[in-house]
Amino acid sequence: MAGQKFQYDESGGTFYYFVLSFLALVLIPTTIYYWPRKKKEDPSKRKEECQCPDCVKKNFILANAEPYRMLKSVAIKVTIVLGWALLLFLTYRVSQFDYEMASFDPFEILNVPPTATQAEIKKAYYRLSKVLHPDKETGDEKSFMMLSKAYQALTDDVAKENYEKYGNPDGPGAMSFGIALPSWIVEKENSVWVLGLYGLVFMVAMPSAVGVWWYRSIRFSGDKVLLDTTQMYFYFIHKTPHMLLKRALMVLAASLEFDKRHNSQVIERQSDNDEVPALIRQLPNLNEKCKEHPLCRMYSIKARAILHAHLSRMPLNAETLERDRQFIVKKCPYLVQEMVSCVHQLVMMAYARRVPRLPSIETIENCMKMSPMIIQGLWEFKSPLLQLPHLTEDHLYFMNKKRHVKNLQQFAQLKPEESRMLLKNLSDFEYENIMRVLGKMPLIDFSIRCEVIDDENTNVVTAGAIVTVTVTLERKDMRSLFGDTKAPEKQGIKDEPNEEAEDEEGGAGAAAAAVPVKKASAWAKPRKGKGGKGGKKPVNNQKKKPAPPKPAAAAAATSATAAAAAAASTTDDQTVANSEAESDAGEHSDVESAAGSGSEEDDKQGRNNSSLDDDDDEEWERLQAKLNKRERLEGKSRMSHAVHCPYFPEEKQEYWWTYICDRKSRTLLTAPYHVTNLVEKEEIQLKFTAPRWPGVYTFTVCLRSDSYLGMDQQQELKLDVQKAPAPPTDHPQWDLSESEPEHTDQQENLSDYTTDTSDEEDSN
Predict the structure, then answer these.
(1) Average model confidence (pLDDT) across the chain
(2) I need a surface site. Which of 485, 574, 674, 690 has the fewest CB within 10 A?
(3) Which residues, in sequence order, are CB contacts of 492 under 8 Å at separation 6+?
(4) Which three-class secondary structure state does DSSP give residue 763?
(5) More reliable by pLDDT, 118 or 174
(6) Could you give the CA distance from residue 488 to residue 178 in angstroms, rounded to a whole number?
């Protein structure tokens, strides 16, 4: 077998092929993704957008956000065109390469037919050699060598046999490997330049680029927040576990993203020495004399003053502080999300007893409240109606006085003639603009379902069970409420106090049923101090909370929630039977009425059991589909619906937080799940462990918007946690010690979550 030969590309053909392939691989996807395209504006979509002066101003800001956008677009187009021109040139050059040995035909070279005799072949050879010989003026050494090789292949017996057998008169030649580099690269006179370029690229440029990238990336978290800022959040949240909204705003303004020493994008001007103090004098309750570091730093005071001015919708100097406002407000949503994450991590660390103090639920909720406030440029105590364009405080006073309209949902339910009458001093254009914006705002149908997936009976929650709480969010536009004056009655808003009274009269029987409280509608405002199911608990009840929950308690919360929904499905028929018995017997107790309708109840229970058996396979498939869906959504989208936010200098999508908490103990039970892809309907699964001790637990499932004020919802659940079945003691691998002080552990964990006194007595 012949040997192997390695040779550099003398003619440049192989190198051209390499460059051509590499350029095509880079140029095709680059053209597809980076070729500037002018978006065609949909006239119908243009009409649906808000045309208020603030939105027009915001669109102008967005259009001028990139001053070099046109130059960048032209540069991209020129680069891509030059790349394609080079690709076409290389393609042409490659097509001109002559690979003689790849298609060696001696008859064609000698220009004779395959049937030519030896005399004709010799004659043709002598005639062409006179022309192609290197000594002649028209000679060509390469062509003459090919001519000689063709003549030899047709006249010499050995060469002719090799040609017929191998297609080459020289026989089976050596295997040749071409290196796709031109030969001048390895020439001696060019070695210094080649080595210098190699060292510059691979030993200087690439390590420097990687080092700069690494140095910058290690300073930021996954959400592009400085790690030093995250550490500052941890410090202040740990220092102030019950953080008020005002202090949370101070901590947000102290983020190091607003400090010139940590962020080169920050602009410091000489005019700040005059404008910032003048702005501070116009802002009450700024607390600029705070002595805590870094809250007392100048950058922090400036950012805080600008945020207060933003929330008060104060006009600022367009050339100085207004640009600072846009820069600060753009970064706030990411910083608020990082603060929420820090609070949750501290809660988990407190459960694990790594930190002594547990942040309260008010702390994380105050952090969440900052997001819609900043997005809308509105203080929390202001009316949500001010999120609509053209409306002022005078309009709100008139609307409240005439029709008692205090929130967006109530305004949407008014008849068209009533809403137009309330805004009669506005023009038709302004009124239509208001209704257009209101109609596109979200209306969320918020429901929950709790199950113990890994247990045989998914409808019963036992102590220590892993529970899955499925939160279902269905989004509609607010225009679905237009003119629907009976919508609150359909959702049972007016019946809430009566329903709660019935629950209290039901005593232990009603509590043991663990039926979720009736869902509050999207437009129901929380009722403070009345103990309503859609609102906060009275302050007195909150003050009576026990010690902070233990690690097991955190899991307990969720399980409790799950059990409630599960128990609800199995106890509906029994509740109906009890109510029928009460209507017949008058003042009979729940137990007596249940006994009186025993036969009816047995029949219904039998039908329920048979239906449950028939639906086992369907239920299992549904649960598996939900689990698979959760896995697929690990890389979830961040596109939902555009938010109307004229005071926020960027486009914003609707996001939501959902979590479970215990209002009485003021503790967070599950990690706040950030819903970023709610387009029409989404299901979110929250998992945690049930309490270790049986009892009836009360929890709250919350939904909060990070973009709109007045869109928050919550549902309360009463959950009956059953005693876990005793493990088999005769198993040879289990050696359970009977000397453990179980009574002490029980006393310690009874205060993990608050329960109703009557429920505890009944369960005991």
Answers:
(1) 74
(2) 485
(3) 499, 518
(4) helix
(5) 118
(6) 81
376 or 616, greater pLDDT: 376
The percent of the chain in helix, strand and coil, each rounded to the nearest 5, is: 55, 10, 35
DSSP 472: E
What one-character DSSP code corresponds to residue 645? -
CATH of segment(s) 105-167: 1.10.287.110
> Which CATH architecture describes the domain 227-344?
Orthogonal Bundle (1.10)
**Bigger pLDDT: 727 vs 370:** 370
pLDDT average, residue stretch 605-615:
51
Domain 456-597+615-726+740-763 class in CATH: mainly beta
CA-based torsion, 610, 611, 614, 617: positive or negative = negative
Please count the other Cβ atoms lying within 10 Å of the Cβ belonging to residue 643. 22
User: How far is 53 from 647, CA to CA, in rounded Å?
Assistant: 11
Q: Evaluate the omega torsion of the peptide bond into residue 294 and state whether it is cis, within 30 degrees of 0.
A: yes
CA of 600: how far to CAs of 89, 232, 570, 590, 650, in Å?
Answer: 89, 64, 15, 15, 62
Residue 457 or 491, more confident: 457
* Separation in Å, CA 761 to CA 319, 429, 664, 691, 719: 68, 63, 19, 18, 15
In whole angstroms, give the CA distance from residue 460 to residue 92: 76
Residue 74: CB atoms within 10 Å: 11
For residue 164, the tally of other CB atoms under 10 A from its CB is 10
Cα–Cα distance for residue pair 723/695, rounded to 1 Å: 8
Whether 657 and 675 have beta carbons less than 8 Å apart is answered as: yes
Q: At what angle do helices 141-155 and 118-132 cross, to 10 degrees?
A: 170
C-alpha–C-alpha distance, residues 427 and 420, integer Å = 10
pLDDT for 50: 84
pLDDT at position 245: 93
| CA nearest neighbour of 181 among 9, 16, 20 | 9
In terms of phi and psi (left: phi > 0; alpha: psi -120 to 50; beta: otherwise), the region of 188 is alpha
